[in-house]
Design a protein that fits this description.
The protein has nine helices and eleven strands. By secondary structure, it is α/β, with parallel strands linked by helices.
């Protein structure tokens, strides 16, 4: 476990399709606690939940985890984790911040760890993840964000664009972007100061802000996309996957 890596999990109660989902019960534990455990099992650094909800913080602390209270007016998870970083590490010892979404209860610890690999290249500002699309219907689904990139090493792309469209055209694999990020601290500080960019607003994809500002994002290719819980149907799937301690751990 590195002393200069910090995993932050932003979590809030306001979700339009599944209100209160961080506290949704899955196999006897709140969803946020499942995500906390997966992040802890990655063993790459301390794990802290950043939230604006006292009930979420209480659930995390009851499970033996650490939570910090952040402002209620953050426009994004990136802004929330940046505030939390300053509270947790004002001395600036942490150099890498991993942003893990709080609605990924089936996330494999190895997948979290994989996000760090591209940052071994000093030219990379932000690292993220993707998996090859296997199901034909996902190729044209606008809810499946695709990353278009150039291969720079086995299992690693340099991101050129992120889109909801089917891209690139022609023969070859398409990649499903996974919204887990590892930032250099300096890159996160730069990113949260940038205004929303034209392509970000058009595609409704925050990561395009970084690309339009000239920040390099590299993508580690992993085997599968973790289940994101956004609807009651997703929640039931997660409950089925995690009903046994041997299931759902990728």
């Amino acid at each position: 476990m590195a002393d200069d890596v910090l995993i932050l999990i932003p979590a809030r109660m306001a979700a339009t399709r599944l209100p209160g989902k961080p506290l949704a019960d899955i196999a006897g534990q709140p969803m946020i606690v499942h995500v906390l455990r997966r992040a802890e099992e990655a063993a790459i650094g301390p794990v802290v939940v950043a939230t604006d909800s006292e009930v979420i913080a209480a659930a995390v602390e009851k499970a033996g985890g650490r939570a910090v209270m952040t402002r209620t007016d953050h426009p994004s998870g990136s802004d929330r984790i940046f505030e939390a970083l300053g509270m947790i590490d004002p001395e600036g010892k942490v150099q890498t911040v991993v942003n893990v979404q709080g609605d990924l209860p089936t996330l494999a610890p190895a997948t979290i760890k994989a996000a760090l690999a591209p940052l071994a290249d000093p030219a990379v500002a932000i690292a993220t993840l993707a998996a090859e699309i296997r199901r034909p219907e996902e190729r044209s689904n606008p809810n499946v964000v695709k990353v278009v990139g150039s291969a720079v090493a086995p299992g690693r792309l340099r991101a050129l664009y992120f889109t909801r469209a089917t891209a690139p055209a022609g023969d070859g694999p398409l990649y499903h972007h996974i919204g887990l990020y590892a930032y250099r601290r300096t890159a996160l500080a730069q990113f949260v100061k940038l205004p929303p960019s034209p392509l970000e607003l058009r595609e409704k994809l925050e990561q395009l802000r970084a690309l339009e500002a000239g920040m390099r994002i590299d993508v580690a290719i992993v085997d599968a996309v973790p289940l994101g819980v956004d609807t009651p149907e997703d929640l039931e799937i997660a409950r089925a996957m995690l009903s046994s301690p041997l299931r759902g751990r990728g």
